[in-house]
């Protein structure tokens, strides 16, 4: 059986710093003798001053990479105030180049610190929700065939993960999702969504939101999934009140007034992302059944909390 998890962590021959230097010089006329490798999940990424070089995994679909670049360009043209990276054109005006047989892109660097682990006022999360809402609104008019794809992190694909978990609660929730949530999702508004606006992809500087990173999970999906993904990461390891969740929701809804049927599906979609975080990460790790940091246990506690609202 082919699974959406197949190939997610497939090994490949990495590009070294010398290769990144040569690529930047040849295709972008950027002289960066010592590009700094950044830790990423699936590609080779180097920082060279104010530019980020991303060299895709050899198995990545060129249509998906083209979609991601086109989405960035569309957002920049539709709402220039949204802080996303810009694609740096190559010397021949293209959005990508071929490096070691792989697709490569240069993106502008955004300054700031990721939001994870930082003490921020609740007002920041309302601002962040509003900005993610603006991003969602900008993407509503974006069309690209590469967005219509099978993706393990796409919330409606949760049933594909059923063979990868033996946790009774996960299995029970996935069956409920199949019976109740999937039929409802087919009737809701769909569009291309960013699909990954968690705190690790948000940049803050001096208390202001300075960037929304990583279009790698962009996909055509129910519009409400944009909000559900972000909220799933903001739920604390404890019962309500959840001020950050409520503030982010209020900001998002100011920009994208979701309908009653969309809001009704929000808790189960948050549940879906919470299960995905455990199941996918366990499947991609060799010691899948160990939990040295307590992440999986905490994630399941959050799952119970969200289920009370579903």
Task: Considering the chains and any ligands shown, give keywords for the structure.
globular; single chain; 310 residues; 8 helices; Aminoglycoside 3'-phosphotransferase, Chain: A, domain 2; alpha+beta; 6-stranded antiparallel sheet; 3-stranded antiparallel sheet; Phosphorylase Kinase, domain 1
Describe this structure in words.
The protein is of the alpha+beta class and 310 residues long. It has two domains: 17-109, Phosphorylase Kinase, domain 1; 114-307, Aminoglycoside 3'-phosphotransferase, Chain: A, domain 2, CATH 3.90.1200.10. Helices cover 41% and strands 14% of the residues. It contains eight helices and eleven strands. The protein has helices at residues 17-28, 62-78, 122-139, 168-185, 225-234, 243-255, 260-284, 295-307; strands at 36-38, 44-48, 51-55, 87-88, 97-99, 102-108, 113-114, 190-193, 202-205, 208-212, 219-222. The strands form three sheets. Strands 1, 2, 3, 4, 5 and 6 form a six-stranded antiparallel β-sheet that branches. Strands 7-9-10 form a three-stranded antiparallel β-sheet, covered by helices on one side. Strands 8-11 form a two-stranded antiparallel ribbon. Strand 1 (36-38) and strand 2 form a beta hairpin. The radius of gyration is 19 Å and the shape is globular. The mean pLDDT is 92.
């Amino acid at each position: 059986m082919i699974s959406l998890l197949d190939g997610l962590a497939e090994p490949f021959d990495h590009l070294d710093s010398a290769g990144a230097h040569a690529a930047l010089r040849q295709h972008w006329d950027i002289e960066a003798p010592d590009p700094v490798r950044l830790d990423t999940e699936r590609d080779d990424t180097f920082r060279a001053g104010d530019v980020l070089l991303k060299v895709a995994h050899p198995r990545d679909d060129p249509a998906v990479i083209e979609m991601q670049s086109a989405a960035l360009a569309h957002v920049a043209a539709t709402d220039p105030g949204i802080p996303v990276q810009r694609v740096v054109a190559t010397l021949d005006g293209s959005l990508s180049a071929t490096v070691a047989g792989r697709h490569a892109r240069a993106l502008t660097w955004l300054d700031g610190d990721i939001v994870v682990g930082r003490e921020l006022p609740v007002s920041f999360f309302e601002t962040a929700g509003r900005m993610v809402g603006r991003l969602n609104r900008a993407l509503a008019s974006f069309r690209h065939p590469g967005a219509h794809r099978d993706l393990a992190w796409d919330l409606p694909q949760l049933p594909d993960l059923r063979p990868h978990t033996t946790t009774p609660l996960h299995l029970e929730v996935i069956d409920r999702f199949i019976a109740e949530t999937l039929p409802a999702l087919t009737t809701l508004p769909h569009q291309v969504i960013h699909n990954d606006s968690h705190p690790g992809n948000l940049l803050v500087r001096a208390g202001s939101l300075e960037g929304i990173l990583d279009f790698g999970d962009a996909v055509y999906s129910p519009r409400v999934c944009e909000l559900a993904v972000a909220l799933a990461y903001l739920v604390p390891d404890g019962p309500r009140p959840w001020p950050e969740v409520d503030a982010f929701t209020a900001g998002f809804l100011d920009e994208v007034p979701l309908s009653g049927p969309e809001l009704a599906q929000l808790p189960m979609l948050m549940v879906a992302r919470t299960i995905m975080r455990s199941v996918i990460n366990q499947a991609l790790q060799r010691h899948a059944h160990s939990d040295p940091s307590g992440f999986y246990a905490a994630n399941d506690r959050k799952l119970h909390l969200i289920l009370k609202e579903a």
